Automatic annotation (TrEMBL):
This is Spore coat protein CotH. PANTHER family: INNER SPORE COAT PROTEIN H. It holds the Pfam family CotH. It comes from the Bacteria. Keywords: Capsid protein, Virion. It comes from Paenibacillus protaetiae. InterPro entries: Spore_coat_CotH_CotH2/3/7 (IPR014867).
């Protein structure tokens, strides 16, 4: 196999440590290693990342560097296009929702080529510092209990904690209490009191923009998990950052076609439902979606990004024999994604007419 022009990331790790990391995939074991890229050597720790993908033969990895920086290396094994995460985050950045930057790389471990990976920027203090965004707390929504509701989605009973589904990454004392209070009051208040509560604690405009991005890209799993939530330092209001957008643009997280109508125009979670109890917010969201359909979610705007990614990736994917999907399937994906955009635009317009 050849790197075919992609930047190289090389890992050197003791063979017994590598075997332990790759075999004991669910215990979050991290082992010391050396990362070589850009002509420099960095001491790191490497471990397996992901959900159901941990069981796959081709693993995805987290790389913990000194100073607290983390690199996410996704095999994107289920995505025949290899670009769905990258394309989604590009779209979010384009419409004004700060999102992780991505870079396709060629991975080598102990001299053995591992093929093409997607390197994804971590949402951490470095993420905010690069963008000049001040924040006081950061939490990850790690499972579908992070739906802003009070009922457990699995048991249908009252949640043991209103913070079920969240992992605190950074935050001073009171971080958990403030989010729990936000969720509690969101669910118990209505009318004017609810309007005051959400306006005081939530950046509503930013939330609607994030919601619209998730709805247009079709991320069914993106409304009650797979996002980061942070308190903006200057305003004290919660904002959302998207995460894990492999199951988008017409395919689910297993890479199976799921139709362009899988996601309803309102998305799915308790916070959204409460916000849409106000006609003014429904109107604002409807107008936002119409604007995005006119200016951003179009083939003319998105197709050049697809083409640029494919021009860069195609030689390496052709040389990468670790992929689940054939090169011919990879080559057919731009047409698949363009068709999704066409169908999705029509579906959203039709749903908006009924919903508004």
């Amino acid at each position: 196999m050849s790197t075919e022009g992609l930047p190289i990331r090389s890992i050197q790790i003791h063979s017994s440590d590598l075997h332990e990391v790759q075999q004991d995939t669910w215990n979050n074991i991290f082992k010391p290693a050396k990362l070589i890229y850009g002509g420099k050597v960095y001491p790191v720790k490497i471990g397996i990342r992901g959900g159901h993908t941990r069981n796959y033969e081709k693993k995805s990895y987290d790389i913990k560097m000194e100073g607290g920086r983390t690199l996410h290396w996704n095999a994107e094994y289920d995505d025949p296009s290899m670009i769905r995460n990258a394309l989604s985050f590009h779209f979010f950045n384009q419409i004004g929702v700060p999102s992780p930057r991505t870079n396709h790389i060629w991975l080598i471990i102990n001299g053995e080529p591992q093929g093409v990976y997607l390197e994804i920027e971590s949402v951490d203090r470095y993420f905010f510092a690069k963008r000049g965004i001040g924040y006081t707390s950061l939490l990850y929504a790690v499972n579908d209990s992070a739906d802003f509701g009070v009922i457990d989605p699995e048991t249908k009973a009252k949640k043991r904690s209103l913070l079920d589904g969240y992992e605190v990454i950074r935050g001073p004392k009171g971080t958990r209490t403030r989010l729990a209070s936000f969720v509690k009051n969101l669910n118990r208040l209505s009318g004017k009191d609810l309007a005051v509560h959400t306006a005081r604690r939530l950046d509503v405009d930013q939330y609607l923009l994030w919601l619209a991005g998730a709805v247009l890209t079709g991320n069914y799993d993106g409304f009650d998990q797979n996002y980061a939530i942070y308190e903006h330092k200057d305003t004290g209001k919660y904002r959302i950052i998207p995460w894990d957008y492999e199951g988008t643009w017409g395919r689910n997280c297993y890479g199976k076609p799921c139709g362009s109508d899988l996601v309803q125009v309102q998305g799915y979670n308790r916070l959204t439902a409460k916000l849409f109890s106000f006609p003014s917010i429904r109107k604002k969201y409807s107008e936002l979606l119409q604007k995005l359909l006119e200016k951003s979610f179009t083939i003319d705007r998105i197709d050049p990004i697809i083409s640029a990614l494919y021009k860069k990736l195609s030689p390496a994917i052709h040389a990468d024999h670790t992929r689940k999907h054939s090169y011919e399937t990879f080559q057919s994906e731009p047409s698949f994604i363009r068709n999704y955009i066409r169908e999705r635009r029509a579906i959203v317009r039709r749903e908006l007419r009924k919903w508004s």
